[in-house]
Design goal:
The protein is mostly helical. The protein has 14 helices and 4 strands. Helix 3 runs parallel beside helix 7, helix 3 packs across helix 12 and helix 4 runs antiparallel to helix 5. The protein is globular. The two termini are about 25 Å apart. About 40% of the residues are buried.
Length: about 350
């Protein structure tokens, strides 16, 4: 007696047109907006008024635009950092720790030499220190992965808490300002990134990184090796590639960029260091990278969208007395719909009856 086939069968979808892919994504975005209307109504706000307040608050004034860019800059930089690792199928979940450790390295020079070194030398030194420490922090799990096949997801995740713990100790110990304050003093003027159009110049650095990562991943030998290794480690070995070298090199590049983001956040946005300096950016950037399908230019748009949501949330809270948590719910709905639609782009559901008719035909 033959066993019945499943009621619903999931199979890989092939050759979907680009037009249809974008139709599905736009439909998912519209669904997210409609579901968000229900959230606004539940919070006692008019959906149309809420959206108007959110958009005008984020994009209607120069101060709002600056805040959007300020939020988007570290998100974009971190998403760019993660792209090579994810392309290689090395799941770097440690961006949060790499940002933190990079900020710590930069802060060491800001705290100890901020009043004795001139600004260009100090800022360049801080940037280099953040690159090196970020690379080391990401290189540790990469070496273990390449040599002993350890799980990089858990390894990088655990290193997050170690980095945060180290900064927490410095914050309440050697680098503490006023005794008992648990606060590191603000950096000297020489250790603060200069502003361009009202926002620290880190946004220019990140835009340069967009071009660099795009070229690196698509038009260099290293990018080709990352792609091959991501498809199949056995194929990479058969082609004579040094898998260990590629894995460690790519992870170090990712960590270095994350460390640089830490420098930009500490020196540009916060102008000091504290244990929550990464502020969840390392985890949110994972979503940005996946929504963009690892495309650096698409990451710009998605990072700015997150910036609009963040700034718009504070505007709604002030103008409509809507809790800021509502924006987090909307962000979650948006992510759920946009990530969920990727399932239907890559897979199809076949009902038992339709499957049997297809076989008869």
């Amino acid at each position: 007696m033959n066993e019945k086939s499943p009621l619903i069968r999931i199979s890989k979808r092939e050759n979907m047109s680009k037009h249809m892919v974008w139709v599905i994504r736009i439909a998912a975005f519209i669904v997210a907006l409609l579901l968000s209307c229900l959230v606004f109504m539940a919070a006692g706000a008019n959906p149309a008024e809420a959206y108007k307040t959110m958009i005008s608050g984020a994009l209607g004034k120069k101060s709002g635009l600056r805040q959007v860019v300020k939020v988007a800059t570290p998100l974009l930089g971190t998403a760019l950092a993660l792209a090579p690792c994810f392309k290689m199928k090395f799941w770097n979940i440690g961006a949060e720790g790499q940002i933190t450790i990079g900020a710590m390295a930069a802060s060491f020079f800001a705290i100890n030499f901020g009043k004795s070194w001139n600004s260009p030398v100090l800022l360049i030194t801080m940037g280099i220190a953040s690159l090196i420490m970020g690379a080391i922090w990401a290189g540790i799990p990469a070496i273990f992965k390449a040599k002993w096949k350890t799980n990089e997801t858990l390894f990088t995740l655990m290193l997050n808490y170690i980095a945060i713990g180290i900064v927490g100790w410095l914050q309440g110990g050697p680098w503490e300002g006023k005794q008992g304050s648990q606060v590191i003093p603000n950096f000297a003027e020489a250790a603060i990134l200069p502003k361009v159009f009202g926002v620290h110049c880190g946004w220019i650095i990140v835009l340069l990184l967009v071009a660099f990562i795009f070229i690196y991943m698509n038009y260099t030998k290293h990018g080709y090796e990352i792609s091959v290794l991501g498809e199949s480690e056995n194929t990479a070995r058969y082609a004579g590639m040094n898998v260990t070298k590629i894995t460690v090199r790519t992870a170090c590049l990712s960590g270095a960029i994350c460390g640089l983001v830490g420098f930009m956040v500490a020196s540009g946005a916060n102008q000091t260091l504290y244990s929550d300096v990464a502020d969840g950016v390392g985890f949110t950037a994972i979503t940005v990278a996946w929504l963009a399908q690892l495309n650096p230019f698409a990451m710009i748009v998605i990072s700015l969208l997150f910036g609009v949501l963040s700034k718009g949330a504070s505007s709604m809270q002030t103008g409509l007395a809507v809790p800021s948590s509502v924006a987090e719910i909307i962000k979650g709905l948006l992510l759920f719909c946009l990530l969920g639609c990727e399932f239907f782009i890559n897979y199809k559901l076949t009902l038992r009856g339709k499957e049997e008719k297809g076989k008869e035909a």
